[in-house]
Amino acid sequence: MITLKEVKEKIVRAWTNHVMHLGCRTTNMVESAHALIKKYLDNSVGDLGTCWEKLYDMLVLQFTAIQTTFGQSVTVLEHRFKDVTLYSGLGGHVSRWALDNIALEESRCRETLCMAKKFVVVFKGLFTGFHVHVELLLKSLKTSQFNWMRYTTIGLGYVWAKKVMKMVFLSRMS
Amino acid sequence: MVSGYLSRKTNEWGLNILNGVHNHAMEPALKGQILADRLKEDDKKIVRDLTKSKMLPRNILINLKNKRPLCMTNIKQVYNERQQIWKSNRGDKKPLQYLISKLEEHNYTYFSRTQSESTTIEDIFLAHPTSAKLFNNFPMVLVMDSTYKTNMYKIPMFEVVGVTSTDLTYSVGIGFVTHEKEENFVWVLKMLRKLLTSKMNVSKVIVTDRDMSLMKTVGNVFPESYAMNYYFHVQANVKQRCILNCKYPLGKKDGKEVKPRDVVKKIMRA
Asked: Which residues pair with A131 in a beta bridge?
């Protein structure tokens, strides 16, 4: 019991955090979206036509911003990830934000020294190894890795869990 | 009082002074007079251009004043001009007709529902083609909530927001629903499901606030996804339960009493 007590907070994650919520546990995200919309609407008495026009302008800018981050994720690989077995293969396929998260979890795993297990937990919960090229991912799903989908509840993220885990083992062996 | 006339014989203008006594002194400034206030044609063009780029009326007026120091226009004129622009844009269409024509022009996905046994439109749900595409690529997490004070009809606007792989939010779709009732939500969520092209990638997590009707419908329409509650509501719940359970002294082995607040914190951190 004593040994458990010390690491209790770390273990708790194994039971909780099983949901892949991409770090959004509040509706803050939608509240901020509301705030953004209201910024564009700038009054509360528009009719459907004016409302739509303003929303359209907002969407145009929003999509440009998203497209920009996609482009950056495809083209930019941070220096700390270059020539590292685990990450260099992921560059261009996994978004920078997700890479950040992987790096974070990896460092945590190295501290707690239970790598393989941790990674599964990580992928089940907070982790967001989401693909930039979804077509590629779907292709891999349709071919050999489809079976992994069946017995998991988290779906797409798990495929990456397996792939990354493989890479972790490879990097440990080498 | 003065009346002007054009003499037919000499073809010259003349002035007749009917009553030469003024009841007030002459105004030093021309501001506030209809003729001086009005926007000239090139001013109107400026207003039109700036309105197109969604500038606020006051900023448009500042721009006008900067460009023409002698301009005597006031804010009301700008508002009037904007109204005219909007009317001429719309033509003889009703707002709803205009909306639908625009939606079709931009390839929007939209659904509408009329009230039973009448032609009054009750709910509208619209999604930009790009957001539909994004939604099919990133359907993992959805956050939904409705907001008020967005339109003159005083109907709540229901917004669904998703998260991309780069930690940015995108709006999946926007619905105008007349009531925040269960059947309205059922309809909107069903329409939302229609946006998904393949059954494989259904949203896994749906975050809502503690609106009972919305919570219920999310469970019904998206049975395979995990409906999550607003974190703070959960915390409030946990707090309540803890206080109920902590009526008897909850002591640790070393005799210290545990504060309910600490318990709540511990539970929430998990």
From this structure: A94
A38 and B150 within 8 Å at the Cβ level: the answer is yes
B83 close to A (CB below 8 A) = no
Which of B160, B164, B199 should be substituted to probe chain A, the one whose Cβ sees the most A Cβ atoms within 10 Å? B164
What is the ipTM metric for this complex? 0.72
Of residues A12, A49, A97, nearest to B98 (C-beta): A49
Give the position of tokens 């105008």: B176
Distance CA A76, CA A69 (A): 10
Q: For B208, which of A27, A33, A98 is closest by C-beta distance?
A: A27
Angle between helices A48-75 and A96-112 (to 10 degrees): 60
Backbone dihedral angles phi then psi of residue B165, each to the nearest 5 degrees:
-70, -10
Distance, in Å, from the CA atom of A36 to the CA atom of A58, rounded to the nearest integer, reads: 8
Q: What does DSSP say about strands B13-17 and B109-114: parallel, antiparallel, or unpaired?
A: unpaired
For residue B190 the two structure tokens come to 């069903």
Q: Which residues contact B155 (CB under 8 A, 6 or more apart)?
A: B176, B177, B178
For residue B247, the 8-state DSSP code is T
Give me the tens of pLDDT residue by residue for chain A, a chain 174 residues long: 455 555 555 544 444 444 555 555 566 778 888 888 888 888 888 888 888 888 999 999 988 888 887 777 777 778 887 776 556 666 666 667 766 766 666 666 566 544 443 333 333 333 333 332 333 333 433 333 322 322 222 233 334 444 544 444 444 433
* Dist CA B39 CA B64 (whole Å): 10
Beta-strand (E) ranges in B58-168? 109-114, 121-127, 141-147, 157-163
User: CB-based burial of residue B255 (10 Å sphere; 0-12 exposed, 13-18 middle, 19+ buried)?
Assistant: exposed
Any bridge partners for residue B157, and if so which?
A: B147, B176
Residue keyed to tokens 């079976």? A147
CB A66 within 8 A of CB B134: yes
